[in-house]
Write a structure and sequence with these properties.
Layout: H1 2-10, H2 15-22, H3 25-42, H4 49-61, H5 68-76, H6 83-95, H7 103-110, H8 118-131, H9 133-139, H10 145-155, H11 161-176, H12 181-184, E1 194-197, E2 200-203, H13 216-220, H14 245-256, E3 261-264, H15 274-289, E4 293-298, H16 308-320, E5 327-330, H17 335-347, E6 351-354, H18 376-387, E7 397-400, E8 412-416, E9 430-432, H19 434-444, E10 449-453, H20 460-469, E11 476-480, E12 483-485, H21 492-500, H22 515-521, H23 525-535, E13 542-544, H24 546-560, E14 563-564, E15 566-567, E16 570-575, E17 583-589, E18 599-605, E19 607-611, E20 632-634, E21 639-648, E22 654-663, E23 673-674, E24 681-688, E25 716-724, E26 736-739, E27 743-747, E28 756-762
Parallel strand pairs: 3-4, 4-5, 10-11, 12-13, 14-26, 16-22, 20-23, 24-28
Antiparallel strand pairs: 1-2, 6-7, 7-8, 8-9, 15-25, 16-19, 17-18, 20-21, 21-22, 24-25, 26-27, 27-28
Helix pairs in contact: 1-2, 3-4, 3-5, 4-5, 8-10, 8-11, 10-11, 15-23, 19-20, 23-24
Main location: cytoplasm
Domain tRNA synthetases class I (E and Q) anti-codon binding: 673-748
Keywords: Acetylation, Aminoacyl-tRNA synthetase, ATP-binding, Cytoplasm, Ligase, Nucleotide-binding, Phosphoprotein, Protein biosynthesis
């Protein structure tokens, strides 16, 4: 085991990732074989991190292990050098299951031996930009640059997407010049949200959001959702009317005054995630838009899994998203009333005490209970004995005499649990189930619109049945589609597994999509609400790409995150024609498009630091930044610098530049301006990528070895000695900044007085490769 662990770390896996891989026997065996094959070509020390990453990715994604040797050798021989080629290789072997594989066809399908030069990329982009030149000049930076990227990538299938993107950015900048204030103004969106049904496109019918430009409140107000009016529950399709319905509705209207009442009812056994954000916005938003009220009700009927930290975190997240509950209630507030209603249900002949075991009641083909027709008086006595603790757990349950929409017969209303409750202590040893509790708590709180996700549609008939069986006010249940994101998991059980195995640190790890994690990463609550509004409230389930959420984040942060300069991989630069003690203050606008919103100053001295990537010792065609032959401008400083001397260490690595500077007013306009820092603060920066390699990590057809085998080994990169300008010195936890030319960042709670820690929230621009 120790030897295998060493083998896995030798290819660049972290010790934690290696240990996690060892827990998956199939993946561990495949990866070990792949490494052994590669070492057979290169020797024990010949498998570098880049090759190791490809081997790991291949081993975790390959379904037909008989191709393992062939693909491992292809990677080892550097025929397969990129993720793009690996994806093509996996697809090729999947579609060619028969032996032997044609090496010629494989090489052609995977781009083996094809080398794309910078000149080819420059020429291809130049051709595309020329083709669209007139429209670019007309629309400027409002033009869809993705079209340019797409055409260039079509011409050069195996080129690095990031290199193409950089070339597009540079050539567009050269054509159009820097962005003006007019370029920075937001362009209104006018597309209409549609859903595909069969052979034609049909608008989503509950409400049409984001592309219409309406706010969430506008979409939820009045009759936009075609919901029933308060007191007119009986007009809703499927609503059951009894002889007492109208009198109960009359009493309900007298109590509520016709006010809309909703509730958000989470279980306090986990942290809220992005799907809950939609539920919060819908429940609280619908009430707010129509001058109603919304309760935050904890469904605390399972004492084994409830913890105080979850109660607190749920309320914090609701308030963080901008909503204030009318009241915070608990299902446990009603335990006595729920018990009395259960006794009444037995008396009415609608419930009975059953002794079938838990395993017998699982699934949909449950055998009929032999105790279904026992006398009412007998069930009353036995239910009282259940309450007094005279039965063992699992020895007796209270079941309701009804058939649910999904065919499940006689759902359980009460079960025995000898576990102290978070709020009621040892007062109760019988606890109501969701099927029993939910509709009755809605009735007790006089909820008008019980909004829930689509999977609860199968429980709607039992919802109406129970209220009517007890002759109590019956609200109306409305369902909407769940919100799901690709490249993540949100199940409580699976997140706990990620925490327990050390893949993530806790529920608020910024790679997760829990709301606490998104807050820690720096996502503004307004952006999450805007995202929920864009997705809309649809009947069908919605599966959305993370980049749509990230786009909402950029929209908000572009307007709210002040600018600062930070250098992640510093290169020291000494300006030799400035005096050793030279120091001046440079004024930097917090928001370049609107300097009236504030300005901060940063020092400018003889020694500055720039990004290593902003200097190249050998000039390459199309490279616009600093080289020994090419000067570059310094953002905000008013200077242009030119290289005089390149200083290297004993290994030949460039460690310092000596340059001279001159005023940008007198110098020839440089091709580019770069950011810099002087007398900076040392900080830690954490860069995040997707946690999973596949879109649907829980889908066995996509990830046959389970979601834990699909972890992206490069999902977090920690830079411990980045440099940031002193303007951020007084920042508080969760304060957000745009580090110019780098991305949006937020201050992490791990920060100390001695060292700030920043999380990258999102990059400045969407990566086309993630779409």
């Amino acid at each position: 085991m120790a030897d295998t662990l060493t083998l896995f770390t030798s290819i660049g896996l972290s010790e934690q990732k290696a240990k996690e891989t060892l827990k998956n026997e199939a993946l561990s065996s495949a990866l070990k074989s792949a490494i052994t094959q590669a070492q057979g070509v290169h020797g024990a020390s010949g498998v570098d991190k880049a090759m190791g990453t490809l081997l790991y990715s291949m081993a975790s994604r390959l379904k037909d292990t008989k191709r393992l040797t062939f693909l491992s050798e292809s990677i080892a021989l550097r025929k397969i050098c990129t993720e793009l080629q690996l994806a093509a290789a996996l697809e090729f072997v999947k579609s060619h299951p028969q032996d032997p594989i044609s090496q010629k066809e494989f090489d052609k399908a995977c781009g083996v031996g094809i080398v794309i030069t910078p000149e080819q990329i420059e020429d291809a982009v130049e051709s595309v930009v020329k083709k669209h030149k007139d429209q670019l000049l007309k629309e400027r930076y409002r033009y869809n640059m993705g079209l340019l990227m797409g055409e260039a990538r079509s011409a050069l299938k195996w080129a690095d997407g990031k290199v193409i993107k950089n070339e597009v950015d540079m050539q567009v900048l050269h054509l159009l010049g820097p962005k003006t204030e007019a370029d920075l103004e937001k362009k209104p969106k006018v597309r209409q949200l549609t859903t595909f049904t069969g052979t034609f496109l049909k608008p989503i019918f509950i409400y049409f959001f984001h592309e219409t430009g309406k706010s969430l409140m506008e979409q939820l107000r009045g009759e936009a959702l075609k919901f029933h009016k308060t007191g007119e529950n009986y007009k809703t399709e499927g609503y059951v009317i009894t002889p007492n319905t109208m009198s109960l509705l009359k009493k309900h209207l007298e109590l509520t005054g016709g006010q809309i009442r909703t509730r958000f009812p989470p279980e306090p056994n986990g942290i809220l995630h992005i799907g809950h954000a939609k539920a919060i916005n819908f429940n609280f938003g619908y009430a707010k838009a129509n001058n109603g009220i919304c309760f935050l009700r904890y469904d605390d009927t399972n004492p084994e899994k409830e913890e105080e930290k979850y109660f607190t975190a749920i309320k914090d997240m609701v308030e963080w998203l901008g909503y204030e509950p009318y009241a915070v209630t608990h299902a446990s507030d009603n335990f006595q009333q729920l018990y009395e209603l259960a006794v009444d249900l037995i008396r009415r002949g609608h419930a009975y005490v059953c002794h079938q075991k838990g395993e017998e009641l699982k699934g949909h083909n449950v055998p009929p209970s032999p105790w279904r027709d026992r006398p009412v008086e007998e069930s009353l006595v036995l239910f009282e004995r259940m309450k007094k603790g005279l039965f063992a757990e699992g020895e007796a349950t209270l079941r309701m005499k009804m058939v649910m929409e999904d065919g499940k017969m006689d759902p359980v209303a009460y079960r025995i649990k000898y576990t102290a409750h978070h709020r009621t202590g040892d007062e109760w040893c019988i606890y109501p189930t969701y099927d029993y509790t939910h509709c009755l708590c809605d009735s007790i709180e006089d909820i008008t619109h019980s909004l829930c996700t689509k999977e609860f549609q199968a429980r709607r008939s039992s919802y109406y049945w129970l209220c009517n069986a007890l002759d109590v006010y019956c609200p109306v249940q409305w369902e909407y589609g769940r919100l799901n994101l690709t490249y993540t998991v949100v199940s409580k059980r699976k997140i706990i597994k990620l925490v327990e195995t050390g893949v993530v640190r806790d529920w608020d790890d910024p790679r997760l999509f829990t709301l606490t994690a998104l807050r820690r990463r720096g996502f503004p609550p307004e952006a999450i609400n805007n995202f929920c509004a864009r997705v809309g409230v649809t009947v069908s389930q919605t599966t959305t790409e993370p980049h749509l959420l990230e786009s909402c984040v950029r929209d908000v942060l572009n307007d709210t995150a002040p600018r600062a300069m930070a250098v992640l991989e510093p290169l020291k630069v000494t300006i030799t024609n400035l005096a050793a003690a030279s120091k001046s203050d440079v004024r930097v606008p917090d928001f370049p498009a609107n300097e009236a919103k504030g300005i901060h100053t940063v020092p400018f001295t003889r020694t500055i630091f720039i990004e290593q990537s902003d200097f190249r010792e050998v000039m390459e065609k199309g490279y616009k930044r600093l080289t020994p032959e090419q000067p570059v401008g310094l953002r905000h400083a008013g200077y242009v610098i030119s290289v005089q001397k390149v200083i290297k260490d004993t290994q030949g690595k460039v460690v310092e530049l000596e340059v001279t500077c001159c005023s940008s007013d007198t110098a020839e306009k440089p091709k580019a301006f770069i950011h810099w820092v002087s007398q900076p603060l040392v900080c830690e920066v954490r860069l995040y990528e997707r946690l999973f390699l596949h879109k649907h990590p829980e889908d066995p057809s996509e990830v046959p070895n389970g979601f834990l085998s699909d972890i992206n080994p490069n999902s977090m990169q920690v830079i411990s000695s980045a440099l940031v300008d002193s303007s951020v010195k007084g920042a508080k936890v969760f304060d957000k900044f745009q580090f110019e030319r780098v991305g949006y960042f937020s201050l992490d709670p791990d920060s100390t007085a001695d060292k700030l820690v920043f999380n990258r929230t999102v990059t400045l621009k969407e990566d086309p490769g993630k779409i």
